[in-house]
## 1
Amino acid sequence: MKFGVVRFPGSCDEVDAQLAASRAGGTVLLWHGDRDLQGVDAVIVPGGFSYGDYLRAGAIARFSPVMGSVRRFAHDGGLVLGICNGFQVLCEAGLLPGALLPNVGLRFLCRQVDCTVVNAGTPFTCACGEGDRLSIPVKHTTGRFYAPDEVLEGMEAHGQIVLRYAPGCNPNGSVRDIAGVANPEGNVFGLMPHPEHAVDLLTGSRDGLVVFQSMRDHTGGAVAA
Amino acid sequence: MGSAHRELGLTDAEYRLICEQLERDPNRVELAMFSLLWSEHCAYKHSRKLLRLLPTHGERMVMGPGENAGAVDVGGGRVIAFKVESHNHPSAVEPFQGAATGVGGILRDIFAIGARPIAILDSLRFGEADSPRSRYLLDRVVAGIGHYGNSIGVPTVGGEVFFEGPYEQNCLVNAMCVGLAPRERLIRSAAAGPGNLLVLMGASTGRDGIGGASVLASAELDEEDESKRPSVQIGDPFEEKRLLECCLELLDAGLLVSLQDLGAAGLSSSAAEMASKGGVGLDVDVDRVPLREADMEPFEIMVSESQERMLCVIEPPALEDVLERCERWEVRAAAIGAVTDGARLRVRCGEEVVGDVPVSALVDDCPLYDLDPAPPAGGAGRLYPPPARSLSSDEPAEILLALVGSANLASRRPLFEQYDSIVQSRTVRRPAQADAAVLALEGGGAIAISIDGNGRRVACDPYRGAMEAVFECAANLACVGAEPLGLTNCLNFGNPEKPHIAWQLERAVAGLADACRALDVPVVGGNVSLYNEGGEGPIYPTPVVGIVGELPDPARAGRLGFHRPGDAVAFVGPFQASLPGSELAKLRGEPLPDGLPELDPAALRGALEAVRDAVRSGAVTSAHDAAGGGFAVAVAECCLAGGLGARIDFGGAGERLLELLFGEGPGGFVLSGPRESLDALAQRIAVTVFGEVGGDALVFSHDDGELVVTVNRLRAAHDGGLGRVIGA
């Protein structure tokens, strides 16, 4: 299993994502200007402020050369995980439905929150049980998930709502407490909480590790050198 | 003699000295450079002599004062670099950009020596919390710090905020950065090798921040500060993020001879410092500096404080490789000059020489002034008006609730939640989990960091107050099990030309020096910010102290909250509670006392070591030092952090009840753990009170009665305290 972690200028959590993924497999950094995905089994679009997040969070990153390859990779069924800014990029790129709006508090918010696994049938949650509560931090200014009602109904029907904030834990005003969503095919997953910052009890929690383990299990489990 | 120099902040005598050095009148470029390099901000002309009192040597010190940042060895070939710096006046004039560029500037100091920034802490002071200006400044300063730190991917792991009347006009914004480097990557700023190239990297140069160091940082604030807004720089963390990654890559590839950031006084001071340290000269061609505005004058280019720029020296054959790597990171880079044999800084504009001065005249020959200290007539109580009375009750439970909800002691959650405290995956103790931030290091071990400085207590007694700041900071480290390795400080004071300010400065530096010697902690660097006063008088003298320590096992890092019902609670240490100068005295509107009680450095050190050992050995469940609000507030904070009550019995208190509960002083700690562990500790330090963790209320019982407050009531007061200030 080889994870590729995209590095944009302005990415902040790419090394953290690499560290976390390395607990489940091999990892390589993918430079934003390169189109070659180096034969990875899964792509992680990490958190941070790609291209300074000028214009709108994620709006510039989607035009980068590497994202052209990621889009094709996703269309071919490859696993793509977008965390925080990566989630924003995937929404901007049209790989995920909905959009991320400024938090209701209008401020940056860094907080450990509880999330509930709504769909344990995706490649990103298959090592969880449905209803599992995961303690994972959020840290963002623009994390309020929004989609029109009719889109949300469709998403609910197709099991695309993968992760919700636990009752009372919604930090940003996301519609229906949505914390993470998948595309209809289930191979692209974006979430605002940072599972890569919850992989070691020493730094607070290891509940996020299950996302990377799920990806490994789904892919077949072999650990690349 | 013209008068241009006076508008630039130079005295007539200083101007004459410049003419003597040059053996002619300086031209416009030269005068601009002198005015900045000879400003208080750059030349430390009122503080340099005093700073020589500070101990600057230690076994573990790798870099000391004079470099861009200090550094200490943490074993395994790793060093920790750190420094604190002020951005007070820019923040008073334009709080968002002032605070943001304060963070940007201190980050550059750290990566200028080859270290990757791994943590930011900040120390903030504003006027009273009910002032609209304080609320505005707090909101924008916190947003500015978060904007820069969050965007660049460096966690903000700690800090402190106090609200006091004397900071109403002149807020304080001090930012500390901590970096990590493999020892072999450390680089100095000394230029070397005549014929080597000088390369300017990063943002283009514009007209922003011209005269920042002299106009803003080295004069008192006044009514016309609005007009100084253009002197505040604009920060771009995205530019700096690329610059940071690019510089570290160039260092890893061994392509740089020396590296220096551009801060106050821009190119002038960076080039002069690099040349001075290397004993060489530099030629700078302003024609080759990438500009933001086309028609800039040579003097403007030389003194612009545009942010996100670095200057490096490279060997000529490395140029192509350096430029290619810069392009990959989308970092602008241009060779703008060369190292020369002569010890002169020569400014060219193409073929024309537009400035030519001896480096030593710029860097070394600024006159240093002796202070003329005298204690304030009538004492601290006359210099600073007493705060307005906001609490009239004598009832202990009401006092406790008022204190835990007061602006200075209330929960900082609404502030620190605006900062990313976890990026880079090292944060073992986040804000409010322990007295100090703890970061685990790759390859084992951990460091702990705290930043402290209670200006009100320094105002009462500059010598003992400054000592207390050092012991308080070291106590925070002891509570997580860390041993101090090095200290950085930022001296925030008023106008040193006034005798009572000179006296505060001199006494405070003596206190810092003696406390550092008592703890064997070297001062590895720091910053001085003077002229912090407006029309209504000076700020409280505020030496801010940041200490970095180490602990062997991050898994055993201490926590502040009670954790296990049934644990014994002990109040330990050579603590002498006294009410004058305390938070309670402030709420009661009492005037500042003239002097603080004497303290015993050896006993304080012994207590720190005993607590540190107890935490490291895992013998205690929690450790917290008693600071603002005294013993009662410290215990309340342990209850709040752990969500558990406690029952404390301290027998006969009599008339000293309020003093015992709320009196302040150094050297007191609240520990919880198995009774036998605390009994064992009693053989090393004084244990004054015992109690037990449990229940849902905090109960203090004494011979004359009981004080009972539920943890829920404490929480409501504590959590809501700052909400009123920031409108969250």
## 2
Amino acid sequence: MVEFSHLTKAYKKRVVVDDFTLSVDVPIFGFLGQNGAGKTTIMKVIVGLLAPTSGTITIDGSLASHPIFKKKIGYMPETPYFYEKMTGMEFLRFCDSLFEGGGNDQKHYESLLKKVGIYGARDFEIGTYSKGMRQRLGFAQALVNDPEYLFLDEPLDGLDPIGRREMKEVMLDLKKEGRRIFLNTHILYDVEEICDEVGIIHQGKLLYAGSVKAFCAGKPLEERFMEVVEEHEKQIADVAQTV
Amino acid sequence: MRNIFVIAKNTLKLEIRDKILYGIIIFGLLYIFFTLFLSDLVLKELPMVKSFGLTGIYFFNAIIALFLGTTSFFKDVDRKVVYFILSKPVSRAQFLLGKFFGLCMVLFFATVILSVAYLGLILYEHGGFDALGLLAIAMQFLEMALFLAFAIFVSTFSSSLLSIVYTSGVFFLGHVVSSLLSAAKQIGLGGIKLVLVEILYYVFPNLEKFDARDLAIHAVAMPFTEFALAVAYAAVYIILLLSAAIWIFEKKEI
Amino acid sequence: MAPIRSSSFSKSALVVFSLLLIVLLQYEYDATKMTLPSEASGSGVTPFMVRMADLGFSPAVASFLWTTTMPEILDLFNGHAEYLNDVAFVNAVDPNMSYPYAFSVLTLPAIPLKDFQGGLEDALAIGSQGLRSADPDWRIPYYMAMDYYLGLNDTKDALTYFDLAARTPGVPQFAERFSLNFGIGSNQRETTKELWITIRDSTNDEFTKARAQAYIDHLDDLDIIQAAAAQYKQAFGVYPTSTDELLARGILSAIPQDPFGFTFVINGDGTSGIDLNKLPSYILAQPAQ
């Protein structure tokens, strides 16, 4: 279980994540929101790339900022950047070597690369990879330490329709293996397809968290999403007027 | 601790694949070859040949250190490759130190290549092993390590271009600062101005002490106290620079 | 990112402590630092050169400038004296570099022009400067001795400088042997001895006195051998072929001990000399070239 408690991240005057409180205990959770809503920032705070201005995140009851948790998690950044001169296999090995006892399991890397579908390009320089291949490699390195929790930022971005299907299959397999996945996306269709629960984020605030079906209540997700966002904007406008 | 070594090894592996590095090393080797020609111009006079060789190695090492120090760390952060690394159980300090030691190893690699060429040149021309020259090269390496540490420190808060400017400036000042002080004393600068120059003298990295070239060329050995003090100075200054760099890097929003 | 706890304090403490340590180390270094002995040539030193020296490039710069200066010696035949200015500049950039001095001492007097006066004077002036400032280089006193002897007929100074050359570390075998035995030829011996006696008696310096005495003893020994050889001829009608025969036949009770360790020989004409095939070990330890 992952719990967010009054998580806030502010840069100077700009508040990017605003008093974010949430409990998640489902296999696949999606953060849904427009670009710039704060999804990436939340994820960076979880994996320790950014420090929160205030608030906490706990995983299974212990603080996520504790270094021990990095062993249990896998992270895939939005638009991953690599060392261009490394090969895919070398990169995977390098990532694994950053974990204690890692860096030696050739078979494991091979099976990961096969799973994400870039086994054939494993010995080519990443500089030659297409956008789709890079996404897949990013996915693979998130799995290299056999993590319990996965945090994926726009994992399907840049993949063609077949690629998107394949990666969704992988995520469902991971769910079957008992892992927990958090993913950021702005694609409504993906949320509908694979997420157990969704968190709607708008301008740093959590507008809704819970089951996708319950949220939709018969209407298309897109329509409901727009409704919720517009209602929120109206509320802000009202508050501004009364002040 | 292990992570530092992993990152260092990876840095070494990657930078060695860099064409620019190879270009510089090849230029260095060409220069040493050119020294053969210069040697004939001075009728193979040994101190002069040594001066050409050792100064060349120093110069090329400085260029390599400047290039590596101002780009390697900065690029990793700027291009967000660090996202993969820092989301794993690797602290920012470990990453920075790993980069530093990795770059030192790359520099060592380049130094060995150029040193072998230089020693070969001296052996060929005069039939002897220039041990003092090797000591001078070792002292130069120490200076370059300090140089690298400074470059990394600066690249935690500036872009590559600015880092190059700052690092070159400090390098130049580091050599000039002691004659600045004696010039100031000579012209009778007094009071607060002298104090300011003295502060500059003590705080700025004083790079003169790593110059064993002059001694090697004139076949004089460096006294042990001087050597030990120079090593200690380099070690402390490097620790200072890297600590400051880590401090800044840990606060940095990436 | 780890929360900032007391690590902030310990980091600033580390910074302050390191700065103090750096100042202390620099201070210590200055106290013990050794510098190469050198005297700047005075008027030629500009701030530019001082800066060059600081970057540690001065030997290389001097060497490089020398490559362009050396050929200028030929211009002296046309009366253009740039060489003198340029060699002074080179020597100011790196006063320890010995070759420019040595080269000047050797070549300047060889330019016999009526327009270019004082080639010899300049050579000796540059040489003296080199002796003061440059790394020990046997060539400087050696060529100076030659200049004194051949150019100025000054055997006394020649002897002094040959002695200096002989004592310079790294002097090759032939030069050391020659220097120690300059003027021992039987027809010059008396003059040489007189000059050494003058040198010995006109100085208060113990080292110079002892050194001059060594030369005097060396020459005396040669005289003793020569006189003994003459005695032998008187007695046996032929000159001895080696000093052993002098001992064997009782002309001498002992072969005099040479202060320089040379072995004496007797030449065909009865004059004494040193054995060129049996050089003392300290000379053989020197480079052959």
